Amino acid sequence: MPLLADACGRKLNTYLPDYVVFDLETTGTSCYSDAVVEISAVKVKGGSVVDEFTTLVNPERHIPGFVVGIHGISDDMVKDSPCFREALSDFLDFAGDEVFVGHNIQSFDLKFLYRDAQNYWGKTIGNDYIDTLSFARRVLKGLDHYRLSDLADYYDIPVIGAHRALNDCRMNQQVFEHLAKELAGQPQFCTGTVSPAPADTIDGVLPGILPGTLRCPRCGSSLIKRNGRFGEFWGCLNFPDCKFTRDAKK
Questions:
Q1: What is the pTM of this model?
Q2: Which of 23, 94, 206, 231 could be cross-linked to 53 through a Cys-Cys bond (beta carbons 3.0 to 4.6 Å apart)?
């Protein structure tokens, strides 16, 4: 039985060098009535892919023709594949306690995982996660669209094989690393240093963020120094999802 939890993981809006990118293909868009037909993942250590996981899934129902037209996965392809209970267990064993990364996973993929983990084992999945859709909107201001394929085009990453889960994972991993480099070059990562406070700090994991960086007590992300109407203050790196602030003089 995989490692499960009583509460869902937290959404992070930062970069970590170790993570697991995952993606699903499904019979439709409803997390209430549709089922998974493919789940894939790539494991990343220090910013580089070290392992991959992929399996087709028998959804134990018909895959509509218009959906087959999108991802190319037909009833015949999945008839001898494992059910999702087995596939999800194998995926969670592969991922361990690593942070999940994926595009639009907060609104789509995670809802399938949470639903089925609850149905199978009466528990949810506690891995923290980073949604590259909201991450990209934070890092790249002013793009017309933020679909994964749009971001891949922006960074000249090939999109051949899009809408198959493993190919999308590989593409998403490259996009995430490019976004991290953009984030590292933004001015806010070079403003000031942090006075260590052992009970309130974490080891630095972001480019430009030093060990001893202050931790947001609300969401667990890093605090960075900003300038406001009333002078300097510490603001959460997860803004606007988290609006925690602290007076810089404290």
A1: 0.76
A2: 94
